[in-house]
Amino acid sequence: MSVTLLRGADIILTMDESRRELGGHDILMRDGVIAEIGIGLVAPEGADVLNVAGCLVTPGLVNTHHHLYQSLTRAVPGGQDALLFGWLRTLYPIWQRFTPDHMHVSAQVGLAELALSGCTLSSDHLYLYPNGARLEDTIHAAAEIGLRFHPTRGAMSIGESDGGLPPDALVEAEGTILEDCIRVIDAFHDPAEGSMCRVGIAPCSPFSVSTDLMRNAAILARDKGVMLHTHLAENDEDIAYSLETFGCRPGEYAESLGWVGPDVWHAHCVKLDPSEIALFAQTKTGVAHCPCSNCRLGSGIAPLRAMRDAGVPVGLGVDGSASNDAGNLVAEARQAMLLQRVSRGADAMSAREALEIATRGGADILGRPDCGRLETGKRADIAVWDISGIEAAGSWDPAALLLAGPTTVRDLFVNGCVVVKEGEVVTVDMTALLSRQRQLAYQLKEMQ
User: Fold this and answer.
1) pLDDT digits (tens, 9 = 90+) for 48-92
2) Architecture label for domain 3-59+371-425
3) Are 194 and 370 in contact (CB under 8 A)?
4) Domain ranges of the chain
5) CB within 8 A of 276, min separation 6: which ones?
6) If you write DSSP's letter for every residue of 263-325 in order, what string do you get?
7) Cβ(381)–Cβ(59) below 8 Å
8) Tens digit of pLDDT for each residue in 391-401?
9) pTM (2 decimals)?
């Protein structure tokens, strides 16, 4: 039996139903679950006791959209200053050379980076499988790092020769795609509460797969009881493509194919109009908001305030490391807050609301009410932030983490297990991992 007591936190931001903020409290974790929160809790015999005085404690952050394989292709020349479609055309030929080793190592590094920023649960959207790569290359990486994982079996089926954007070498036959979706769901999806791995189905985008695949993916996902994910309404090019190809806006297209509902979440949604926002609110369709990537690619500022006010479920995503180019969820939450203030005024979004989106909000759109909040009976996914350092020095409100606070955790627990200790990932040999990452990135660069 694993038992850990976090003793004497300066502040605990619970993100529970009442959004309680508790001073001087302890948290007892037992077998991956929060067993008790209170003052002066007695440590059971054999428990590990961690002093968290001088610390802010929050739920682990939740990342709702990523492309982990892109950790090998940061700041690639030719893609640094391009819009979405031009950026993709630059990167596709590089990604075409990836192997299972590239996928595995880049996923490990991306997940370790997320862990250092307080992330305990991450989704991933892997939509290309060159040279024998498979979804489990990332699943095994997540198990080794120790993060709770929601991989999605993505796909592209319309290549350049058929009028699509990706090169033909990166697309797959649609029958093969659906068969492999079934394989990975049967092999790796765990629907139980407290699950460490749940698999979703995620055709890449309306401009890289057929209408038939979108429709059939939705049918298959509901038959298997898994969630659906794709990119939608990311920028003006995306809207223009939808109007020209489908004769309707992206939200209408999604609705026509069964791609709305509480088991669906779309990435970006920068260009949703009021009618689409109303549709998503009514159907409880989720949105993964990726502000840093949207800025980097010049896609625009998503209507986050309007979505939240309408009741659209929203979480945060760092997006791929080739379009961010970082994987820090605290930085993402701060950027989300700042962009809404730029577009709507200084009172448009508080630091606490942005952090709620990054924790409870993300967990909810992934169908994980057992995560994203600190309550008795919920999963022991906990981030500990040292607020005694220079980043928070002079802060009158340490709970306003996104205004004045660290962007790296001191300690991180996932399912009650230590992943980060005193600012270092302890589940893998990071020196060896980063050396291998640099070697693989160098080799890819030399092949250009």
Assistant:
1) 999 999 999 999 999 999 999 999 999 999 999 998 889 999 999
2) Roll (2.30)
3) yes
4) 3-59+371-425, 61-365
5) 233, 249, 250, 251, 252, 269
6) TEEEEE-TT--HHHHHHHHHHT-EEEE-HHHHHHTT-----HHHHHHHT--EEE----TTSS-
7) yes
8) 999 999 999 99
9) 0.98
